[in-house]
């Protein structure tokens, strides 16, 4: 999901238009990496350290002066920064809604955020990963698929979640989930024992999809009561797109600072 920050939240709903947005953005990002490659391959970046005179020449003030390839690289990065600033403005998310049940811990430079809350003596922690954004490309090819549910989910953006529910110092339940718009799928379920030896290979139960259907529904309700529900994950989807935009912009600025140094 490299650099989905330039994508708009509406891309997934725009079909072919959204696909064109994604393609044009990828072309802009490709220009950044092409410039980086040319810069790294230039003679200045591959000096021949065959003699002391060459080493002295490389470290002289004349050699330190920025080359034309550096200037070109900076121009490409600065152009991409302007695009990223525009995307960040459009992707910006307001504060969490009043009924949002979790506290958010968001550290700049990290690909995930952490959520936490307590519920009737339980501690609930959630790790939210960057979204998997679908542009709409290839959606028409899947129209004849026999499994309508899988086809629909395959053309929707989603965010991965890891939900851990613990009680004091005892075992905890760990759910691996995928949150789609207005729907949450439970992919895995495991019982984690904090006192278990690292050398032990614990039995973690069958695949969640193989559980009795009534048991699956009961666990979905179990998570919903604890705050893992569509109203929560839909906000998180927008929040993570906004974070992706911020992180990409910060990454570009770090690149610029390095080249300018």
TrEMBL record:
Gene3D superfamilies named in the record: Mitochondrial glycoprotein (3.10.280.10)
InterPro entries with a match to the protein in the record: MAM33, MAM33_sf
Regions of compositional bias (Acidic residues) in chain numbering: 138-152
Organism domain of life: Eukaryota
GO annotation, cellular component aspect: mitochondrial matrix
PANTHER family linked to this entry: COMPLEMENT COMPONENT 1, MITOCHONDRIAL GLYCOPROTEIN FAMILY PROTEIN
Name this protein carries in UniProt: Mitochondrial glycoprotein
Organism encoding this protein: Kalanchoe fedtschenkoi
């Amino acid at each position: 999901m490299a650099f989905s920050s330039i994508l708009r939240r509406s891309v997934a709903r725009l079909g072919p238009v959204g696909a064109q947005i994604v393609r044009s953005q990828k072309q802009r990002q490709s220009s950044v990496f092409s410039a980086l490659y040319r810069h790294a391959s230039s003679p200045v970046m591959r000096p021949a350290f065959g003699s002391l005179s060459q080493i002295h020449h490389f470290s002289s003030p004349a050699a330190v002066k920025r080359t034309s390839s550096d200037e070109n690289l900076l121009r490409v990065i600065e152009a991409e920064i302007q695009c990223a600033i525009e995307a960040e403005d459009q992707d910006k998310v307001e504060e969490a809604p009043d009924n949002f049940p979790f506290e958010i811990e968001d550290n700049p430079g990290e690909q995930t955020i952490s959520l936490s809350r307590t519920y009737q003596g339980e501690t609930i922690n959630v790790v939210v990963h960057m979204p998997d954004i679908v542009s709409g490309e290839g959606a028409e090819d899947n129209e004849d698929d026999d499994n309508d549910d899988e086809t629909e989910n395959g053309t929707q953006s989603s965010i991965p979640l890891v939900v851990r529910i613990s009680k004091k110092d005892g075992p905890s339940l760990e759910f691996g989930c995928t949150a789609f718009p207005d729907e949450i799928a439970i992919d895995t379920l495991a019982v984690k024992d904090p006192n278990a030896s690292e050398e032990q290979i614990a039995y973690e139960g069958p695949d969640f999809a193989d559980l009795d259907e009534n048991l699956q529904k009961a666990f979905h309700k179990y998570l919903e009561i604890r705050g893992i529900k569509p109203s929560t994950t839909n906000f998180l989807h927008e929040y993570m797109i906004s974070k992706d935009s911020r992180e990409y912009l910060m990454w570009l600025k770090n690149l610029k600072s390095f080249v300018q140094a």
